[in-house]
Amino acid sequence: MIPRERHVEYLLRLADSPLVLSHRLSEWCGHGPVLEEDLALANIALDLLGQARLLYQHAAALAGGDASEDRYAYFRGVPEFRNFTMLELPNSGVASAGAADPDYAFTIVRNAMYSAWALELWERLSRSADAGLAAIAAKSLKEARYHLEHASDWTIRFGDGTDASHARAQRALDSLAPYANEWFAADALDDEAAASGLGVDCAALRGPWLVRMRALAEEATLRWPEDSAFLSTGKRGLHGEHLGYLLAEMQSLARAHPEATW
Amino acid sequence: MNAMADPAAAARLETIRAIVGAIPDPEIPVVTLADLGILRDVLIDDGAPLVLLTPTYSGCPATEAIAAQAREALDAAGFADARVRTVLAPAWSTDWIGEDARRKLRDFGIAPPACSAACGARTPPACPRCGSGEVEQVSRWGSTPCKAHYRCLACREPFDYFKPY
């Protein structure tokens, strides 16, 4: 058995990543390169938001007291968020400081990497000892499959496309790959969750994830980047400079009108 | 109380099932909550009727509207004591959409889902208007999260495809 507090912490870690990625994808709404992609990203964002909400609701029920999905999403600060660092990076790319134009290749390659990881994660979590989490995982798995198909199609089109699209997809892959290391590096909470049957052995996801990603890169005529020792720390609450801006925007309405309902 | 042993209670549950089951889907009103498999069960829990609904997609914006409509319909029919609860397991599947509902979707111009996502989401649908299998996908997402947008290459008409889930 895992203590309740740690159980909640693990669920929040699972929830924060789809919430933050959902917000990044929603920034494309009305700005997509073509109408179909505008729709696609808005709908993927909706699915991810829905997954995060289910996880927050589950965590809140377990935590009791005044915990609620809105309190988790809108009234926690940067150090309390446990999302992976990769997902808070601006759509314009790693080194852009968030000021440049959004980059569709970066958005798509990130979605491909995350969806492929999520697929492996949800598949295993659908057998979690926590029946509530297992139910959420079984739903999310169906959605992750479709998200991966979408992102894979575009990764191939970009990689195997023009010189310009190939260069941008390769640059996205090179800059994003080191941020995936965090996904497979277990810390004490991961170990505890895995040992109790609640969570997964996150290091074990790396093999199947790499097989998927290398196959996708090959089909897209992209070079899979060399291994890197870089390790981001978002899931421990130590974030880069971008998350604060993202939360400021996402939380402004709820914080200006804390009792508002809609 | 065991509803099976009490005909009046069993009849009450059947009435509730009929009321909630007949509510049209807010986004695809040609089919009902029963048709789509969103209404999972009606049972007696803790001495009162309990309606179990399941969401389609995690992020489906209609989920809350559906629960609110069920609540409203129950209140209007005098079942104020009935509760509505959302259940997630087993996860909703388009395999639960029955033959009758598939026909209704097709008549409405929406190609029904071929089979569940597990058996291959890439199986192309047949055109709901002319029946041709010569179709192409225009957009992976259509007018709602659960549909993709297609075009028939035979009759040239655009149509929605209810995606396997």
TrEMBL record, chain A:
Gene3D superfamilies listed in its UniProt record: 1.20.1260.10
Example of a GO cellular component annotation carried by this entry: cytosol
GO-annotated biological processes: phenylacetate catabolic process
Pfam family, one: PaaA_PaaC
PANTHER family given in the database record: 1,2-PHENYLACETYL-COA EPOXIDASE, SUBUNIT C, PHENYLACETIC ACID DEGRADATION PROTEIN PAA
Name of protein: Phenylacetate-CoA oxygenase subunit PaaC
Taxonomic lineage from the root: Bacteria, Pseudomonadati, Pseudomonadota, Betaproteobacteria, Burkholderiales
The encoding gene: paaC
